[in-house]
Amino acid sequence: MKLVCDRGNTPMRPRIFIPIVCLLTTLQATAQDDEHLEADRPSESQSAQTVDRHAFQIELGLRREVADPETVDYFEPRTVLRYGLLEGFELRAEVQPLTERHRDGGRTETGLRPIELGFKAGLWKGKGLLPEAALYTQVGIPKFASEAFRPTYAEPRIRLLLENEINQQWRLNYNIGAEWSGEDTKPQWLYTLSPEVTLGKHWEAFAEVYGFVQGGALPEHSVDAGLSYFIGKKGKVDLSTGAGLTSAAPVNFVALGFSVKL
């Protein structure tokens, strides 16, 4: 699965980061005494947690990915919007601007991948060895995409999100599910496994293995790791990097992001 963001040799645009810096400074000054926000980035694993009722959360990510030796992809930025409609139920929208740069001949395509709409719903709370669970689904709508990145079919995805809290420092996130690329009707099965550790008051780290398997195609297995810094209780910045383990997977990527709860 080739998703991406950032601009190879081009500096990231200041107009994106100036308001981000101002917003995060405000968050640190106005933090409230509740839990740190739960974001669905930077790992491939989606959290089993939903946003609070009537809360609005924005998650932005810039990512540069070497999709294959001849192609570099950028999202600038990938944007996920989450709204807590009910306790344990959130509505979601995802927007993915994409620049695809081909090294052979220097051809570049820029546009918008299908806008995705969906939801996440909590299924049950975890206790002991029983993991907390949620159902996540989104669908990419071809009509809401640039012509260069418009697929033939809709792009649905569905996952069972599972999370075990081992102790106050450690937890384990893992997902299983399926996605469709929009170019055919064959499902692409996926798995993720990501231990996460809290490092003091502000830091969190993760490592992860994940993959995508489709009948008749080579499997895509990858590893990644990253670090997050919490700003107050409502903001988070993250940095992550990863690499492919099989020839069909992306070669490598690096990503920078931030999340804020309003």
Automatic annotation (TrEMBL):
<dbReference type="Pfam" id="PF13557">
    <property type="entry name" value="Phenol_MetA_deg"/>
</dbReference>
<dbReference type="InterPro" id="IPR025737">
    <property type="entry name" value="FApF"/>
</dbReference>
<protein>
    <submittedName>
        <fullName>Transporter</fullName>
    </submittedName>
</protein>
